[in-house]
């Protein structure tokens, strides 16, 4: 049986589980790939640090290049841009295929890496880079290869979904929910990358590149985090039959691709509404297939390792049988829209003076900017102020912003609360 | 650019959409597969019958063999066992790869076809055979190739899910919901294959073969349909925080594979509980990946055609780049359990005489047969009879049946109502 040599770069949470599964499932992996998968080395920063017993200490090295040059398949789980990028390029140059879970690197340097893999006629696989074990990279790259994708909507950050879910189900404040997420290890001490939407934006760029066959980088994604979401927003969403989710959205419009990450009102009968806790889910809308959803654990050592190993099996079987991973295609070359040209339905809440004619004045400002209103609800809050909840039809972001700018200055408005996108069900 | 010749067998609902997409998406398909996909013929029974304009009449033929012998990839969408089986074997013998959506054929003759494809060194793809556009065949065949699957649970029949959903949401009787499904075209005039669970059983066999790398045929699946589900069962499930779904279940037990299709109580927080209308969903549980769900339209011309075309792109790209579809592996060779050796939690309802000591007598019978009780609820119905709802812990099917046989004869039991499996959340 052909031997396929594997080099593993990184032995953190995921790397440790990859090492364990390579050893525990040796026979199954051989049967499925047609090759004996032999782990030739594990590159780590500190070979003397304590390790899980699943990591064979005799394979540890602090010289990644030596094991890359020996390998048929390199698994890159170091994270970060450099030196991960240099090692992957070195692997390609040496004729090795690469499996990576490095979303930051792909979002920043994806096209360069795809091109280098194609030049070297080897595979680049990265199922683990988006939504852990959920096979959404496959879904976009292969399962809809005969279709035309119109939209990708994802809950791709488990930390923020956990926080919003706790706020929704238990009525916690943002700060309480964040503290709980940190306690449980779902959120880091510095939660910026998660709660400000940057992690989701990197994944959004990867998903959009795959869906629309166009170069998209993280800088093309318009990002809003969830720090400003208050209990009142969750409650007001609930009154509209919605839950608040951090949605990464990539949509194909006639005029280009719209990319957005931000808190979004999702109707309860939308498949994304039922995604609980730290789970991930991605909805793909395509012309023929209609709407598909992929759902599962978006993080965690073992689930992510499962995704890595499925890629390793595919890459190894190509070493045996020939064949290549699907081409990374950028023939689409569709323009990416400015934030202002984005379109969505919106929900906005205003505290207004409770006096005759305010409703007419507010709706008049919307109309003047060409923003069509679907529904307005007026309630009186505990503070005695009237509260207007306005739901719009689909409108241009620029028009909505002009509306809000005018309203913010209007003497009949006490306060403009959070304004959020609303996804259609 | 390499030309890959495609023969299409069948121009029904799905075949017509395949012909349309092959023509409309010609350039995208070429970019993704690396080949010019050329439709060389469409075999139909009656070339003079009226057709959708998407079907190019000049390609119609009533001589399938002539176009099979010319093709690089044969798409079989005729359905039925023969002559579909003979045509597929002929395609393999001529060196063509095959894409099929024929679940009945695969459930009956899968191993023969896999073997013939392997001998001829060509591909057999069949994503469309289970759950339409939902890429669950891929999920089992490739995306979890580095993992060990422990269970597959699916809502794989849209007709029955529609009927049960109508009963649940609108409180309809089975007969009313069936009539509505027939009116809307979700159910056939003779609904036997759907409502008696046979369609789901064929899909269950295909899913189990893939998940456990073992030969499984439809005859190995223990099947119960939904005809006996009454409004009272739906209501009683609701009181237990569950919905009733027709679940196709394949589980790996220490002693073998358990295969079951039948009405099942699914807790509201289980991902399958939220599958509405005619949608399909499949949950896959694996040791490392934990629990994944794939969700989408399980039928319909365009969605199913999308699945067919993704397989065509994969098969065509192998004609260009080399490589093969994943091996169909039966190395698992795990025994399939008799129905009596199956295990599940159950919910059973009894109408009992409302007299002192009945509860003790009923629970005593369960205990005598080694069936452990999780909860008992006693209510008094409109008929003045007391109604006992018994929920068990996981128990052997044989033990449960012995319990029920004894209770059916007991003088303190007026009636044994439906007994259903309960899935853990």
TrEMBL record, chains A, B:
Residues 347-421 form the ACT domain. L-homoserine binds at residue 188. NADP(+) binds at residues 9-16. Signal peptide: none annotated. SUPFAM superfamilies: ACT-like, Glyceraldehyde-3-phosphate dehydrogenase-like, C-terminal domain, NAD(P)-binding Rossmann-fold domains. CDD domains: ACT_HSDH-Hom. InterPro entries: ACT-like_dom_sf, ACT_dom, Asp/hSer_DH_NAD-bd, HDH, HDH_cat, HDH_CS, NAD(P)-bd_dom_sf. It catalyses: L-homoserine + NADP(+) = L-aspartate 4-semialdehyde + NADPH + H(+); L-homoserine + NAD(+) = L-aspartate 4-semialdehyde + NADH + H(+). It holds the Pfam family Homoserine_dh. NADPH binds at residue 103. Keywords: Amino-acid biosynthesis, Methionine biosynthesis, NADP, Oxidoreductase, Sodium, Threonine biosynthesis. The active site is at 203 (proton donor). Gene3D superfamilies: 3.30.70.260, Dihydrodipicolinate Reductase, domain 2, NAD(P)-binding Rossmann-like Domain. Pathway: Amino-acid biosynthesis; L-methionine biosynthesis via de novo pathway; L-homoserine from L-aspartate: step 3/3; Amino-acid biosynthesis; L-threonine biosynthesis; L-threonine from L-aspartate: step 3/5. The keyword rRNA-binding does not apply. Its cofactor is a metal cation. GO terms for molecular function: homoserine dehydrogenase activity; NADP binding. Belongs to the homoserine dehydrogenase family. Catalyzes the conversion of L-aspartate-beta-semialdehyde (L-Asa) to L-homoserine (L-Hse), the third step in the biosynthesis of threonine and methionine from aspartate. NCBIfam families: PRK06349.1. This is Homoserine dehydrogenase. It comes from Peptidiphaga gingivicola.
